[in-house]
Amino acid sequence: MPPSSEHVVREGRYVELTYKVTDRKSGHLLTRVEFPLGYVHGYNEILAPSVHMALEGKSAGEVIEVAIDGNQIFGPRDESLVFTDHVENVPEEYRQVGTSILMENDKGKTRSFLVTQVDDEKLTVDGNNPLCGRAVVFTLEILTVREATDEETTAGGAIHAGANIAPSLMRAV
Questions:
Q1: Chain centre to alpha carbon of residue 143
Q2: Is the dihedral of CA 40, 47, 138, 34 positive or negative?
Q3: Which CATH class is domain 5-71+133-169?
Q4: pLDDT tens, position by position, 16-47
Q5: What DSSP letter does each residue of the chain carry, written as one string?
Q6: What percent of the chain has pLDDT above 90?
Q7: pLDDT over 60 (residue 165)
C-alpha cells in the first residue's frame, strides 16, 4: 500500500534523515551523518539541489542513492588553494589532519581550509571542497516525514528547547 501523501517528502514537510557519502570510484566512505539531520523541504536547502530533487516524493523508511559529480557542484579543483608551510608557523591547535581553519584574504573574504597533511616539518591546507573533483554517491535514509510547524518553517529546520537558530546558520554543504 503506498504511503499517505502526508508522509511524502515535498515542500513544507519536515524531513529527518541520515546519510553517507562514498567515493564512486574507490568505494571509500568519505563522510557519514549518523545523527538525524532535520530540515524543512523547500525552505532550507541543506544538501546539493540534485539530492533534494531526488528526495522529492520519497517516504519515511526509504533508502535512496544519488550519484553526484563534485565538479558540477563545486567546480574543478583549484590547486592555487593548496598551501604548504613550515609546521612551526602554524598554531598547535591546527596541527591535525581534518582540522578546519577559517582564513581571510586581504579583501576581507573568508574561506574554510582543511588541514590535509602534517609531518614533523610541513603542514598542508586545502581550500577546495573535499568533494571537488570527485564522483560520489549520497546514500540517504529517510527517517521522518511530517507536516512542519510554523516555527520549523521559519527556522528551516528542527527547533530544540532553548535553541535560537537563525535560518542563515542552518545552511550547510
A1: 18
A2: negative
A3: alpha beta
A4: 999 999 999 999 998 898 899 999 998 887 88
A5: -PPPGGGB--TTEEEEEEEEEEETTT--EEEEEEEEEEEETTT---S-HHHHHHHTT-BTT-EEEEEEEHHHHH-S--GGGEEEEEGGGS-GGG-STT-EEEEE-TTS-EEEEEEEEE-SSEEEEE-S-TTTT-EEEEEEEEEEEEEPPHHHHHHTB---TT----GGGS---
A6: 53
A7: no
Beta bridge partners of 141: 18, 63
d(CA 48, CA 43): 13
Architecture of domain 78-126: Beta Barrel (2.40)
Q: How far is CA 85 from the centre of its chain?
A: 28
pTM of whole model > 0.85? no
Give the span between the Cα atoms of 74 and 67, in whole angstroms: 14
Cα–Cα dist 167/155, whole Å:
5
Would you kindly state where each structural domain of the chain is located, as residue ranges?
5-71+133-169, 78-126
- In order, the DSSP letters of 98-122 are T-EEEEE-TTS-EEEEEEEEE-SSE
Same fold, 5-71+133-169 and 78-126: no
